[in-house]
Specification:
The chain has 139 residues and is an all-alpha fold. It has one domain. 81% of the residues lie in helices and 0% in strands. The protein is built from 5 helices and no strands. It has helices at 2-16, 18-41, 49-76, 83-107, 114-133. Helix 1 (2-16) crosses helix 2 (18-41) and helix 1 (2-16) crosses helix 3. It is globular and about 55 Å long.
């Protein structure tokens, strides 16, 4: 789902801008994850649980397609004079941060998708809050 999100992202960035697009994508992921996580916690999905989880997984990849490239561009925006070094540092921080968060989330695994889905909701919500509070560079 991240592959079709890339050209759609290009069109939406022109209309909405990077910051509003990332905010909306993260908020949508948070709301969707909360709803689906609650449905799994209450065992509402029954025999369709696999397909609901599959649809949720596709939504995670779509949000990645809408957010990762835009977030990298926003992070590197003020660092054009050292873009190569900045991209390397950003990649390293993303890798280490992802590994640490993944290890923590993996420790709460209970045999159901609920911890993963609710963790995605929490982290998406945190990302949306950061995007709302993040000051815009005025060059």
């Amino acid at each position: 789902m991240s592959a079709p999100a890339a050209p759609i992202n290009g069109l939406l960035v022109l209309r909405l801008g990077m910051r509003p697009l990332v905010r909306r994508a993260l908020l949508a992921q948070m709301i969707l994850s909360l709803g689906i996580g609650l449905g799994f916690a209450l065992d509402l999905w029954g025999g369709a649980a696999f397909w609901v989880f599959f649809a949720w997984s596709c939504s995670v990849f779509a949000v990645a397609g809408f957010s990762i490239g835009n977030l990298n561009a926003l992070a590197l925006e003020p660092l054009g004079h050292i873009a190569g070094m900045a991209a390397s540092v950003m990649g390293a921080l993303a890798t280490v941060g992802g590994a640490v968060l993944g290890a923590v989330i993996g420790q709460v695994f209970d045999g159901t998708p609920v911890p993963l889905i609710l963790s995605a909701a929490a982290l998406s919500g945190l990302g949306a809050i950061v995007m709302i509070w993040m000051p815009r560079d005025r060059a």
